[in-house]
Design a protein that fits this description.
The chain has 336 residues and is α/β, with parallel strands linked by helices. The protein has two domains: 99 residues; 216 residues, Zn-dependent exopeptidases (Aminopeptidase, 3-Layer(aba) Sandwich). 53% of the residues lie in helices and 13% in strands. It is built from ten helices and ten strands. The strands form two sheets. The chain has a seven-stranded mixed beta sheet with strand order 1-5-2-7-10-8-9, with helices on both faces. A three-stranded mixed beta sheet has the order 4-3-6, with no helix packed on it. Strand 8, helix 8 and strand 9 form a beta-alpha-beta unit. The longest helix has 58 residues. The structure holds zinc ion. Zinc ion binds next to loops.
């Protein structure tokens, strides 16, 4: 009996010894977890801020840099910029999460692998487009101020240059030709979204899609060879009455030296975004005119294509404007 009691006492004692440190461990683990959570929180916050900054820089480089540099002495204004970009980042994250939920893993096919997981939201596209509209409409009848060029060249990255030679009113044979409406904002937003280089007509002047002796063509001749440009995406606008949504001009194939299948690739991307009626060489892009496309392919020996976009896809409805920019983004991304 005494022996049994002794064994029981020993067992109770052993139990107490085992139990005590395990309780201690649980408490400590919780504390450690808490500290780790806080640390991770701080790290995530730091990573998020860096991401936001990078994203803001990449996507709205011109605009973002301009705001930061003009407010560099004002910490409050700078932090406002950060807040704005972080809310955009949050939206992007939300969108990515919802797409992950609704869309299975992309398939290995070319089409599937480039499904719109990387598509910007309509708000991210239309925000910049709308903000640029007023700038282009303010400049469309102004001659270049003293010391300023008629064009703007914005150096970006990659091998694609986006051009918009009819972004403002221009002169042809002594008459004023009206701007290809909204091609300036579309080209600029497209450059923001892709990081691609950008060249557009910024002030009322001689038509660079008609005359070769313009500062615009001079900029092309200097920039294209020295920046290893492989494709010029030339953005234009035409009336809805032609019957197509987009017309691709490659001078009946002559303006494509390397990317012979660009028209079919581009058509595929437009179709994917509901832009069904894509025509080819209704506007040839330079058969009888000294166009940007002709100049780039003939004189600079670099591929170029003229994208004539019907009016209804240029800042008439949000859906159609966003669709055409998403499709153009896919094209630029593929070749950049
Ligand atoms: Zn045009």
């Amino acid at each position: 009996m005494q022996a049994i009691l002794a064994i029981m006492v020993v067992m109770v004692a052993l139990f107490a010894v085992i139990k005590a440190p395990s309780k201690f461990n649980v408490i400590n683990r919780e504390k450690v977890n808490e500290i780790v959570r806080e640390d991770v929180g701080i790290n995530n916050e730091a990573i998020r801020q860096v991401d936001d900054f990078q994203r803001g820089f990449n996507e709205r480089s011109g605009q973002f840099v301009a705001v930061v540099s003009s407010t560099s002495g004002d910490a409050r204004a700078t932090s406002t910029v950060k807040t704005e970009t972080s809310s955009v980042a949050k939206k992007e994250k939300e969108q990515t999460v919802s797409q992950e939920k609704t869309e299975p893993q992309p398939s290995s096919s070319e089409q599937g692998a480039s499904q719109p997981a990387a598509d910007p939201s309509n708000a991210e596209i239309l925000g910049p487009v709308n903000s640029y509209k007023s700038i282009f409409s303010a400049n469309k009848e102004k001659v270049p101020p003293a010391g300023e060029s008629a064009h703007v060249l914005r150096s970006g990255s990659g091998k694609v240059l986006i051009t918009a030679p009819h972004a403002v009113n221009h002169i042809r044979e002594g008459s004023t030709k009206i701007v290809d409406y909204c091609t300036g904002p579309i080209a600029k937003a497209l450059s923001d979204l892709t990081g691609a280089h950008l060249l557009y007509l910024n002030y009322y002047s001689r038509d660079p899609n008609y005359y070769d002796d313009t500062s615009f063509k001079e900029a092309l001749a200097n920039f294209v060879p020295s920046n290893n440009i492989k494709l010029v995406v030339d953005i234009h606008g035409a009336a809805d009455s032609h019957g197509w949504d987009v017309d691709l001009g490659d001078i009946n194939g002559a303006s494509l030296l390397n990317f012979k299948d660009l028209a079919s690739v581009a058509t595929g991307f437009f179709n994917q975004y509901g832009i069904a009626n894509v025509s080819k060489n209704d506007f040839s892009g330079g058969e009888r005119q000294n166009t940007v496309t002709k100049f780039v392919s003939e004189k600079l020996k670099v591929d170029a294509m003229q994208f004539e976009i019907a009016r209804k896809y240029r800042c008439e409805t949000d859906e159609q404007t966003a669709a055409v920019i998403k499709a153009l983004k896919r094209i630029v991304d593929k070749y950049k």
